[in-house]
Amino acid sequence: MATDCEAWLNANPVEAGDLSDSFASGDEENGAVVIANKNINNEINGNWVSSSSNSIHEARLKAKAKRRLRKNSSRDSGRGDSLSDNGDVVRGTSVAPTSPKSKLLDRKSRLGKGRGLPKKGGAGGKGVWGRSGEVYEPEAVDEKDPNYDEAQENCVYETVVPPLDERDFEKTVTPIVQEYFEHADTNEVAELLAELNLGPMRSEVPSLAVSLALEAKASQRELTSRLLADLCGSILSRSDMEKSFDKLLRELPDLVLDTPGAPQLVGQFIARAVSDQILSKSYIEGYKGRVDCEYTRAALDRAAVLLKMSLDGLRIDNQWGTGGGQRPVTQLIKEMNLLLKEYILSGDSKEAERCLRDLEVPHFHHEFVYEAIVMVLESKGEKTFKMVLQLLKSLSASSVITVDQMRRGFGRVYMDIAEINIDVPRAYFILEQFVDKSFSMGIIDVKLRDLCPCRGRKRFVSEGDGGVVKVESY
Prior knowledge:
This protein has helices at about 1-10, 15-20, 30-40, 55-75, 100-105, 165-185, 185-195, 205-215, 220-230, 240-250, 250-260, 260-275, 295-310, 330-345, 350-360, 365-380, 380-395, 405-425, 425-440, 445-450, and strands at about 45, 45-50, 80-85, 90, 460, 470. By secondary structure, it is mainly α.
């Protein structure tokens, strides 16, 4: 076997460098390329033609050269050296390989296409509509678009509010009227009604407002009359008012079940409407001879009487009275004085309490306490003293006059007692007695009683008394 190998080597000499598996530094790739070029003809379609042992060494060298070239080409992404289809080495520009980690963090395209700019020009991303600061202009209509319709160019789009039906009408308008009873601003009600599409329910607004006012206070009925006068012409017409009052007269049998005095109240509303020129003067005369319901007849009779009395000087525009918050202070003081005088004459504390409630001025009840105490100080008998005590006790027990209003009324008397004493010399003495009685009856507390002023001025008596200093008393 050894002799055969030696004979073959003598016939085919091979350089020592060709049999080594290593190359000198810097010539490794060149040596592999030389061997590949030298013996490239011994390989056809990846199969070795020679079957000798020398072909084994050459195959190893070629395979090693291919692996190195393939490794470099994968690192350089096609920009280094590579092998052609027939095994030739293709030289390329050498580029330093990059790390795989930097490749993963790179946002640019890995396909080698494009200029490396961000996607969508920087306008992409989740929840992004476009570039920051970009303004969209109206898109021009394309007449060549198959969906183009020439009739749509002249269309005008408006917000359409559907008309209210009966159920939605009550749910929508009732809170508006109830809020009006609190703020008394007719302009706000007119604006809210103008935003609604009332449609055929427009004539129902006055009847709904009057039906709510029948169960309210006198001051709120006055506000309702003012509201109808302000709405007529701007929101409602005269025909709407007439239709609404016609409906009220037809529904009187049902309204009487909740409000027994509904016929008289509706008659007053009709008279006020005629006085405010909301209804025509011939409105009542149009019902003559055509009324079968007794409640309707009573309402029309009440309206006719009030209109006849207005010709004699009665003012219908103030028939309901004015609410406490809208009434002048001088008028309130005058009515409270009349209330106290009527109570002293009649002695009916329940009627006095009812009249005080009807004034609807709980924030001004301290004036009532003040006037009552001043009346006691100016009186000359015990009757007024005892009756005022009983009245204040009754009003305090029923919480008509609160503790705060009672305290403020007594405090105002304490502050003005010096001026009252000028006209009433015994004012200090009477006030002390009244305060002590009020405390004993539970009208005031001990703190308010101790704040009662007393006259502490001292004077010298005549020489006949021995020059003794005495406290002045009455």
